[in-house]
Amino acid sequence: MKIEKYFLIVAIILIIGCKSPNNGIYEFDPRIIDGDEFTLSEIADSIIYIPLDNNHPLDRITRIKLTKDKTYLNSRNIGILAFDRQGKLLSRIGSIGRGPGEYRYYLFFCIDEKSGRVYNIADQNEIIQVFSGTGQFIRSFSLKEYGTSILSIEFYNSQLFVQCAINYPEAKFEWIIYDTLGNVIKKQNRHLPLFSTNYGSNENPYMFDNKVSYYNTWTDTVFSVLPDYTEKPSLIISPGEHREPQSNLSIEQIMQKKHLSILRIFETKRFIVIKYFYLKYTLALIDKNTHSTFLIDYDYDDSGGNPVSGIENDIDGGSWFLPESYFTESGREYMVGIQYPYQIKARVASEEFKNSTPNLPEEKKALEKLAHSMKETDNPVLMIVRLKK
Fold it and tell me: Domain boundaries in the chain?
């Protein structure tokens, strides 16, 4: 299918569908998007802080997955770790290295909550490794025969959803469904003609409402894959020069960051949540019924690793909140972020905090107690906010 024909088809869908805000497809344009700022109490009603224990100093966490009794995350200097829901380290999932059962890459992993097994993308993004819930290596299987690198992975419908990196000329498929032994169940042909680029992207598939959804940088579309493994578009980026080009870029062009970069995207019952960079870092919460938007600008520290701003926290008066992931439990919805002890301690010591009157004054006192119990160099703290019904 030609690129022009693909976008014509999607445009027709949008023109027909945009007559109703409930058509299921949202057109996102970072150049003109507008919305009100908001505070945490407008979307959430409580906060839980979970300090992660200090057995191993953690560095640059990029992925957090919560199950009913565990928290899984990756750390640049250690790899994948499992904690209990109180923050105690339970196990190290495999280890960084080049030997059997070790890995060099650990940015993307997923969990089978029934068995507790962990599936990790490793070895030049062409190998999937399988570990037990206690961190023991079980087996691995290769995807090299399909001539593509693995971009991301999610556990879906008791199978493995593998998103392929289609910016390589040998990549034939958009995604592949494997069973847990590495047998192919379904392959989705790529949506665009073959092309190649010299830069990557930051996709993260996400689960919501019994389907897995993924963002494709090169078609600028979010597709939802249903339990029968058919797919449909649910969000599209408006056409324009802000889209990533399907060609090589110079080092200068890459550093200029003139194109839209989706850093994180997921859904709640009410919102499409998008963290993105287009001229600045922005968090957008888009109401799925009305398409009204809440916007927050945020930023990172000088190292580019740790966020330093987010949604104003008027629940307990503490530090801002920036969502990284989402989960449901006992019929309620939650979003998860990370705070660092030095940030919490600095906030509690500030005059602004001391003079604040948050919605839950008793929680302000609990936060003060937490801040005084930590050292600035302690490991990060998970910040879990419960969304309003």
Answer: 33-60+268-389
